[in-house]
Amino acid sequence: MTSILLLYPTVLTMVSENDVIDEGYIYIDNGKIISAGKVSELPHDYRYADLVLNLRGRIVLPGFISYHNHLALHFIRFMGLGLTLDEWIDLVAWPYEKSLTPEESYHAAKLAIYSLLRNGVVGVADMHFNMDSVAKAVQESGIIANLSVAIMDTQIKTYEETLKENMVLFKKWNGVDDNRITVSLGPCGIRFLKPDQLQEISTIAKEQNFYIHMHISEVQEDVKYAKKKFGKRPVEVLRDMGFLGEKTLLAHAVWVSEREIDYVAKTLTNIAHCPISNTLLLSGIAPLINMLRKNVRVGFGIDINPEWDVLAEARLAMYLTNNLYGTPPRLQPFEILKMATGGLAKFPGIEKHGLIKPGYDANIVAINAKTPEGWPYRKAYYSAVLFSRANIETVIVRGEVLVDGGEVLTIGDRDIEKAKRVLSKKLEELPIFKQSK
Predict the structure, then answer these.
(1) Residue 289 sits in the same domain as residue 375
(2) 126 φ/ψ angles, rounded to the nearest 5 degrees
(3) What is residue 27's three-state secondary structure?
(4) Residue 270 host element (H or E)
(5) pLDDT tens by residue, the chain, 437 residues
(6) 234-241 vs 195-208: helix axis angle to the nearest 10?
(7) 152 and 138 fall within a common domain
(8) Whole-number Å distance between alpha carbons of 332 and 322
């Protein structure tokens, strides 16, 4: 594997807010960060790295993580915004998904990953269908991914079918490429599965050491359903069934009580906060500050965010939280970026991600802060990253350069054009598209 020397960047290590290295260096070998420090202290041997990148005027930090995605839905990210979640599912998602082919999922995932890499995202937790095809797109792209099948029991997909798909996916893809690709179980949510099915999934997870990725309390209907069906709130249902824990990733958690937040915090359960999709689909605003006060492990999820950008999620989270709670501001840019760079929540494959520190995976982004958008960034590094929208020029994942000069190296123009040709036919089939003509 190629050794890499990054020279002269401003390094945001994310170890602490004040741990910033000006005129720094990072030495990478075998996919790991070996050393980081000031160029003036650069060991002589590191000068002979296989690849040397001059990053003067760039800000370097750990790459961004999206904790909740549906890669194959990238194709419909502009459609039906302003509908409620259930309206969007009925009018946009289901009509698209019910005839979605493996080939279409593959190409949609390729386009999605292209956008993610351009926006500095180095890892995703993805849940959908045709996941074998999605896994192939992931493998070819170089991005880190935790994959799961949306296990459900509906008119479109049966429980037996989706559970089997998830188990087959695990056997084939879990641990591939030195754990760059991992697989979790993906119970879609408590409204999409019968109680005995949920319990069976929990039992399988415990017995076979599976991780879990699922939706919870995204809309008020989820809470009403849980109270009617189980006589308790959604997170309480998961607690009693044995779902909560550090191997579980819950998406949304918009309508959660203080007691439910306590359960999540005490069990080290991970939360994917998705403020853009939650506001666009009129779902509500998650109590982020309450979670952070109780040390809940929270990260950002892109979900159906039409910008396909973790930093867009981070900005909105900061705007909403500080506006809702008033003075003094409850969140600062460093705290928000800690969430965005994988420093709090975890899923398989990113255990050694989130810090620029020896022994950590070399998952790194470099942002051009010399441009008018990023300048002046001195002494305001975290704000510059969060708000400047300066170009992300370089993306490194596990020591491999995937984006150079803003160009994605693993997904070319031919891949994009073929994907557009395949998916353009799909567009004509969608009822919402026909109605808008």
Answers:
(1) no
(2) -120, 135
(3) strand
(4) strand 270-273
(5) 799 999 999 999 999 999 999 999 999 999 999 999 999 999 999 999 999 999 999 999 999 999 999 999 998 998 888 899 999 999 999 888 888 999 999 999 999 999 999 999 999 999 999 999 999 999 999 999 999 999 999 988 999 999 999 999 999 999 999 999 999 999 999 999 999 999 999 999 999 999 999 999 999 999 999 999 999 999 999 999 999 999 999 999 999 999 999 999 999 999 999 999 999 999 999 999 999 999 999 999 999 999 999 999 999 999 999 888 877 778 899 999 999 999 999 999 999 999 999 999 999 999 999 888 887 777 899 999 999 999 999 999 999 999 999 999 999 999 999 999 999 888 777 776 665 55
(6) 50
(7) yes
(8) 9
Q: Which two tokens stand for residue 218?
A: 């995204």
Residue type, 219: V
Do 271 and 385 lie in one domain? The reply is no
Residues 75 and 113: beta-carbon distance below 8 Å: no
What is the total count of domains within the chain? 2
Q: Which region holds residue 379: left if phi is over 0, alpha if psi is between -120 and 50, else beta?
A: left
Residues 334 and 366 in one domain: no
One domain for residues 18 and 88: no
Q: Are residues 393 and 360 in the same domain?
A: yes
19 and 88 co-located in one domain: no
CA 370 to chain centre: 28
Distance CA 2, CA 53 (A): 13
Query: Looking at the structure, do residues 55 and 68 belong to the same domain, yes or no?
Result: no
Find tokens 């994942």 and name the residue. Answer: 397
DSSP code per residue over 145-188: EEEEE-B--SSSS-HHHHHHHHHHHHHHHTTHHHHTEEE-B-B-
Count of CB atoms within 10 A of residue 15's CB?
13
Q: Does some domain include residue 347?
A: no
Residue 52 Cα distances to 2, 3, 43, 49, 254, angstroms: 10, 9, 14, 6, 45
Residue of 83, 75, 79, 76 lying closest to 281 (CA atoms): 83
C-alpha 363/C-alpha 395 separation (Å) is 8
Tell me the residue range of the domain where 188 lies: 64-340
